[in-house]
């Protein structure tokens, strides 16, 4: 790879990381006004559709573009011209056949799926979702080709554009339901329309960028093979694309299992129809919280993971081990502090975001899954760096079935608490599977020995004491207004987070070399070194 291409790739990867972070924050954030406007029942309807739409988004954003970019990069490195017959048509044919079959399965099974979840009104929402899958091939092809040319900015811009359109349509639909005569079932249809128009916006943005870059694709010799053949692309595009997409679908598969099993299990054991659906809506309040904390914990950690590869492990073994240890330590410290805050403040957070404290006990149990989800995402990224994409995809599939079985066994007797326990157990299993694989690949890593347990216990204890002091001395009557509650939570979370990390640094939770790998390392080193000057 040329130095210029490497620079473009590094800058593009940074843009992709920023876009991914903003997109996930938007994805988690819009669900709060959605629930506020439509209530737990509206939130329930949306969450019954969202997992399938989320799968479509992951295929269009991460899965197939990653596979196509690998093929594009390979072809361009061999100075082959990307012609219609030899490149675009075969890949497009593979994508179209796959998505047509997937759409057909969803369309045909829509009545059965709606009957399974006892929500016949969602049949046409599921069938419209099937149609959305037919538009993925074009957007995936554009993204993949541009990424294969080391043009990451188009994917970043299209991702933000797509998310803004989705959020705008969904919130507008929620307003119509809340303030007009639209049925609450319309939220499901609106979610599908939002995804469709979001994909259209992404396609337009990518097309503009592609037109600007197409001269580069036409600069190669015309004597390249121009024959049409699907076979050379099947394994790379189809298998690698699906596996790569699955690596971004951990939380989606958890939500899919809940969408299919939660309400039916409650109904089968005597719960009322409306009560069961509202309870599912309450349980789904935990999803944006899980997503926000997981994004925060994993994103900061993953910024310090360079492009890990088998080659780098052989030539720069000590550096690879240091990067991996630092990523895990950073994610672990962040998520432990966040979970302590969530456990202590969840009733107030629940009341601020969702207007009441219903389900706070069960949601506290659900928040424990954030630890395993964050560390599993960091671990799966490490494994992907070594080329274990298919293996991590298999682990995620196993997680889905564990969650499914857990729901079947626990929800009938424990209700929402059973679903929370099943989520925690399934993500714990995923974390253990990934760590076993990492231990096999990096036997000298010893993550548990790298954690400064004294540092984490002291910092966690100080944080717990600090938050409890706030809760003890702030009169509850002051928190009757959501505005004052917002100010209170922001003050506690911001100040508590600072105190927590200062103690992590002062108690030497990181080595000096590890701190140098983190963003704002100069400030972190200065804070950490103050302990030695006292």
TrEMBL record:
Signal peptide from the UniProt entry: none
Protein known as: Membrane protein YabM
PANTHER family for the chain: POLYSACCHARIDE BIOSYNTHESIS PROTEIN C-TERMINAL DOMAIN-CONTAINING PROTEIN, PST FAMILY PREDICTED COLANIC ACID TRANSPORTER
Topology of this chain in the membrane: Multi-pass membrane protein
Annotated compartments: Cell membrane
Residue ranges of the TM segments: 12-32, 44-64, 85-110, 122-142, 163-184, 190-211, 232-257, 289-308, 320-345, 365-386, 393-411, 417-435, 456-479, 485-505
Keywords: Cell membrane, Membrane, Transmembrane, Transmembrane helix
CDD domains hit by this protein: MATE_SpoVB_like (cd13124)
Gene coding for it: yabM
Main localization of the protein described in the UniProt heading: membrane
């Amino acid at each position: 790879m040329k130095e210029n291409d490497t620079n473009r790739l590094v800058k593009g990867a940074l843009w992709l990381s920023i876009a991914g972070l903003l997109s996930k924050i938007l994805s988690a954030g819009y669900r709060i006004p959605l629930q506020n406007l439509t209530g737990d029942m509206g939130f329930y309807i949306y969450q019954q559709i969202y997992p399938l739409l989320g799968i479509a988004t992951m295929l269009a954003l991460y899965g197939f573009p990653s596979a196509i970019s690998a093929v594009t990069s390979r072809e361009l490195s061999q100075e082959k011209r990307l012609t219609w017959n030899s490149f675009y048509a075969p890949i497009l044919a593979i994508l179209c056949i796959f998505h047509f079959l997937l759409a057909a399965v969803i369309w045909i099974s829509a009545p059965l799926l709606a009957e399974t979840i006892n929500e016949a009104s969602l049949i046409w929402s599921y069938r419209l979702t099937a149609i959305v899958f037919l538009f993925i091939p074009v957007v995936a092809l554009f993204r993949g080709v541009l990424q294969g040319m080391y043009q990451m900015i188009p994917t970043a811009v299209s991702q933000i554009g797509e998310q803004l359109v989705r959020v705008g349509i969904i919130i507008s639909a929620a307003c119509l339901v809340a303030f007009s005569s639209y049925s609450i079932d319309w939220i499901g249809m609106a979610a599908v329309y939002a995804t469709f128009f979001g994909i259209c916006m992404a396609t337009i943005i990518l097309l503009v960028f592609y037109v600007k870059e197409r001269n580069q694709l036409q600069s190669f010799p015309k004597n390249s093979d121009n024959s049409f053949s699907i076979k050379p692309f099947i394994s790379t595009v189809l298998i690698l694309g699906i596996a790569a997409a699955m690596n971004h679908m951990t939380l989606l598969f958890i939500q899919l299992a809940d969408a299919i099993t939660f309400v039916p299990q409650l109904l089968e054991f005597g719960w009322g129809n409306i009560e069961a659906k509202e309870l599912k809506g309450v349980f789904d309040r935990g999803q944006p919280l899980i997503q926000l904390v997981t994004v925060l914990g994993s994103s900061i950690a993953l910024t310090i993971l360079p492009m890990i590869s088998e080659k780098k492990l052989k030539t720069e073994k000590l550096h690879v081990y240091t990067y991996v240890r630092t990523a895990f330590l950073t994610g672990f410290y962040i998520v432990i502090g966040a979970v302590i805050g969530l456990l202590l403040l969840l009733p107030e957070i629940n009341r601020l975001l969702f207007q009441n404290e219903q389900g706070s006990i069960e949601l506290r149990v659900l928040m424990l899954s954030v630890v395993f989800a964050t560390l599993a995402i960091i671990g799966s990224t490490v494994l992907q760096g070594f080329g274990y994409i298919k293996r991590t995809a298999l682990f995620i599939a196993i997680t889905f079935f564990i969650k499914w079985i857990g729901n079947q066994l626990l929800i009938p007797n424990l209700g929402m608490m059973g679903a929370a326990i099943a989520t925690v157990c399934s993500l714990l299993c995923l974390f253990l599977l990934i760590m076993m694989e990492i231990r096999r690949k990096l036997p000298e890593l010893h993550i548990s020995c790298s954690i400064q347990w004294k540092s984490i216990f002291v910092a966690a204890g100080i944080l717990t004491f600090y938050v409890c002091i706030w809760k003890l001395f702030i009169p509850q009557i002051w928190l009757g207004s959501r505005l004052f509650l917002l100010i209170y939570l922001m003050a506690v979370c911001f100040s508590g987070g600072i105190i927590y990390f200062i103690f992590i640094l002062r108690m030497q939770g990181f080595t000096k070399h590890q701190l140098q790998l983190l963003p704002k390392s100069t400030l972190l080193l200065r804070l950490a070194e103050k302990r030695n000057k006292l």
